[in-house]
């Protein structure tokens, strides 16, 4: 039941942070316009490289290490302080490098300066500790408070394109304050450390092993926007970013299982219970597929009507981009289960690293010709190709460890139901008036139709839901 409780905590938070952008994105699209949205997207994509360097793989590594030692208070205290101090060192180096970058940058310098606090905030991010302890409530409630404060500040202080710097500062400060708000909760778990016995650099190499795949991941998460801004225009970067935000918001609900299951699988693996780690894999794979398929098909189906209503007619270029990129919802859901929930906690880091490096290489190779030829649509295609490469490689690498038949049990039912649902909702989208009521009807009809098809075909997820309900 603890896994279910943690998933509900995390899923609730993901739904909440899905609602917040649903309010702010259309507002910001109107007050900042394509240029303002594009400048923020472009400058943030650059600063994320320094954030990545400062993070140095700690979120995944720290989560896993805390899960390994959480039953030993002394070792828990020692591990926390060592990892925390190590990250502070790398953040200081990242801030120094960013200062050098600013000294040689003239364009958009005021916006780059406003983004600086985002890097500083990384040093105080200790959410990995609470995830490793499987205490998701404290991070969820902290996140809710910060999101509400951010929402209020955006509507209070961001009124036009001239407030773009203020908007960036609000986002940066909210991250920093949110991270600082977690520190009082540490007292429940930690003892007084013996600083003379701490060896923070001892965690550097194993953390770097997880840092390498994050570098590769960041390439095909951020490089698209950086290249669009540099090769085409900041407006094109903004179009892709708007699509990417919507896809990632939907995806966040599905991948909430990864955050919850990583410490659970790591703990089981540390105790030598290898059969249970595979049981977790099969269960999670079925669950995320059942969720990801209708979300991908559903988002693609309503996009032609949703984009002009949500972003205004100035962003109609987002429509084909979002329809293409919706495919990655299923692919990332799968790699989240195989990679984050299985390969990482079972210490198969090299395989995980190779998979994301492969994805980065595919993205880099595909980006240049596709972006030059098709702009933001090309970036979306490159994203799909890179995620497909990661998925295929991870499935190949685990073929001797898992039972494919059990892994994909019921997946064809989900895909068939999703495809039929797409046809119905896309037809309704063309038929109905261009207003929000029509979109609500389309979504409701799609959800009910998909659920009905799963019941009729007796899909695996139905029996899982019934079993949980009886508990």
TrEMBL record:
TM helices/strands, residue ranges: 7-29, 41-62, 83-104, 110-130, 137-158, 164-183, 204-223, 249-269, 281-303, 315-337, 349-372, 378-398, 410-428, 434-456
Name this polypeptide is given: PST family polysaccharide transporter
Membrane topology category: Multi-pass membrane protein
Pfam families per UniProt: Polysacc_synt (PF01943)
Keywords carried by this UniProt record: Membrane, Transmembrane, Transmembrane helix
Keyword Kinase: no
Cellular location(s): Membrane
InterPro entries: Polysacc_synth (IPR002797), PolySynth_Transporter (IPR052556)
Keyword Transcription regulation appears in the UniProt entry: no
Record's GO cellular component terms: membrane
